Amino acid sequence: MGVISRGVKNAFRNGVRTTSIIFILALSIAMSLIMLLALKTVDAKISSVKGSIGNTITISPAGVRGFEGGGTLLTDANVTDVKGLSHVVSTIGVLSDRLESASTNLISSIEPGEFGNRQKRQENSSVSSNNTSANQSFTMPVMVSATSDINSLSSLNVSELTLTSGDKIDASSSENIAMLGKDLASKNGLSVGSTFKAYDQDIKVVGIYDTGNTFTNGSVLMPLKTLQNLSSQTGQVNQIVVTTDSIDNLSSVETAIKDKIGSDKVDVVSSQDQSQNAVTPLENIKTISTYSLVGSIIAGSIIILLTMVMIVRERRREIGVLKAIGSSNTKIMAQFISEALTLTLISSLAGIILGLIFSNPVLKIMVTNTESSVSTGGPGRVMGGGGGAMMLKIGNGTGNALREMHAVIGWDIILYGFLAAIIIAIIGSAIPSFLISKVRPAEVMRAE
Amino acid sequence: MLKVNKLTKVFLSADNKVSAVKDVSMDVPDGVFSTIVGKSGSGKSTLLSLLGALDKPTSGSIEVGGEDVTRMGDSKLIKYRRDKIGFIFQNYNLIPNLTALENVTLPMEFAGIKKEERIKRAESLLKQVGLDLAKQNRKPGRLSGGEQQRVAIARALANKPKLILADEPTGNLDSATGKIIIDLLKDLARTENTTIVAVTHDEGIAKQAKITFTLKDGRLV
Q1: Could you tell me which CATH number the domain at B2-220 has?
Q2: A140-191 pLDDT tens trace
Q3: How many domains does chain A have?
Q4: Which of A175, A289, B62, B199 is the most buried (most CB within 10 A)?
């Protein structure tokens, strides 16, 4: 029987003690693993959130707000210039227009209501104080938007877009085609394949969509080039939506855009607050996991160290005998390290199984607690789109970011866990056995 | 030849110094069965620990085979204990979770002897000390005191030491078993030319020794 096998055998010398040690150590290892896992999951989520939520910048002509204000329209060349900036992942040109009754046969699905009528009265009173007929026959204009990327919801300023019939438009096309919001299509009795008049041209309906929003369901979507041609704004856009590689780079890209186009020519708005709202609770979970990880590693180390101190002290006499019959200090240490490793490896195995079982539930509890602690931050907001774009509703990305988190245990995490446990076991057993093996045999035997 | 010259061991306690062994000088020729006698607390066990290099003397020297043990470094001391000395303790000090056979193979494992060889030798030694073959794979807890002491003697002989130090080897045994153990040790001294130094307070055993040293208050009288 060698030193190693003697150490392994010693690990099972006392059944009750061995079971207790393995149980406590397994809990500590499971806790470390769960926290390591939570940390890695949250870290990955933070990177993902930083790369997907709130990493957009909207560029509008300086002074423009909705269809009010001035400014010079942006151009396709500006889109290309911005695309060339570092940390910019994509740029989408957006053009919006209002179809008044004179330029289309479409009837708006949106009723003016008290607010719209009051606005119209104020507009008319500034033109002619005696004109009352406008008040009676007023209808809302139909909003038409065009984009170079129909799949980018952020450029369309909607949080969701579902096709209810037909197909999506090809955003690169220059044909007279359009998608209609379901309310607008219903109001005008239009379906896929129908045509309507706009800018004195026949426009073919290729798809009907639903955004879940009354305003955007009453709008028209067209390919960018089509609207540019029809509205005589060739090569022009009134908004550029820029996506950066991370929210960490929003500020530098914002500065670069102003430098490139001219800070007096554009208004640049980033969605940093939104991303910050999403990242803050994740950062909270990360902090909790980091502290818990450190705590459980310290706890595990102390358990192993105290266990081995206890075992070594208990076997002082045996160590004395081993030395008296010719064992070297190294062999004594190796025996105790092998014993500690046996206990640790079994505990690690049990800890990993516990970790696998409890990692997702624990992560869920942490997410729930963090979510409730940040829920006072508000569920999102409705704001006006720059450059006359549709009204947009930015959903609360925070909740989604948290709810969509799932712990995935990779071999690397298991390996890290094993390595950490083994290193702790080696140190925890080597220190007390080294100290005791340095003592003269007679001293430890006399102490009994 | 075991040669002890002016050996002194002083223990430092909280307030005072206690001299357990004072100025002890003694010679034991090779192959001689000798005993150290004295009352409890006279320093017998301390002297034996010093001879076996289990403790460091405060002063004096111990020569075994011409080498001064007190001047040896740690690695030399390990070799000395492993190759030159065989220790027999009063309470046997067998490793409880190892079988009788495994206990005997232990010193040979430390000496780097191959597994097959050490098992063969351990079986032969256990047979020599009279332990039944059937009991060789029993753990100490399932052996009687006499059987455990036989295993301890076999373990002490494992690496063919030139000096066997026995601390009250029959202290926990009945007189019949004690006699068998002493006969075994005497036989070893005669047949293997092994020097044996046994601590005892049993006058009957002391009378069987070729040389007897008497200790009183740490001094030889």
Answers
A1: 3.40.50.300
A2: 889 999 988 887 776 677 778 889 999 999 888 999 999 999 999 999 999 9
A3: 2
A4: B199
Q: Which of B182, B171, B214, B202 is nearest to B47 (CA)?
A: B214
pLDDT tens digits along B166-218: 998 888 778 888 888 888 888 888 888 899 999 988 888 899 899 999 999 99
Q: Kindly give the residue spans of alpha helices, DSSP state H, lying in A198-315.
A: 224-230, 250-261, 272-314
Residues of B in contact with A316 (CB under 8 A): none
Scan for tokens 């190294």, then name that residue: A330
ipTM score of complex: 0.91
Let me know whether A34 and A146 are in one domain: no
Residue of A nearest to B82 (CA): A326
Contact B87 A324 (CB under 8 A): yes
Which of B56, B75, B107 is the closest to A325 by Cβ?
B107
* Domain end call among A226, A241, A270: A270
> Among A14, A316, A321, A445, which would you mutate to test the B interface (most chain B Cβ atoms within 10 Å of its Cβ)?
A321
Question: Which pLDDT band, with edges at 50, 70 and 90, does A68 fall under?
Answer: low
Same domain, A299 and A189: no
Structure token pair of residue B122: 């351990």
Query: Is A211 found in the same domain as A84?
Result: yes
Chain A: give the shortest CA distance to residue B81, in Å: 5
| Region label for A13, one of left (φ > 0), alpha (ψ between -120 and 50) or beta (otherwise) | alpha
Question: Residues of B numbered 97-116 whose beta carbons fall under 8 angstroms of chain A's beta carbons: which are they?
Answer: 97-98, 102, 105-107, 109-111
CA A333 distance to own-chain centroid: 49
Q: What residues make up the domain containing A373?
A: 3-51+278-447
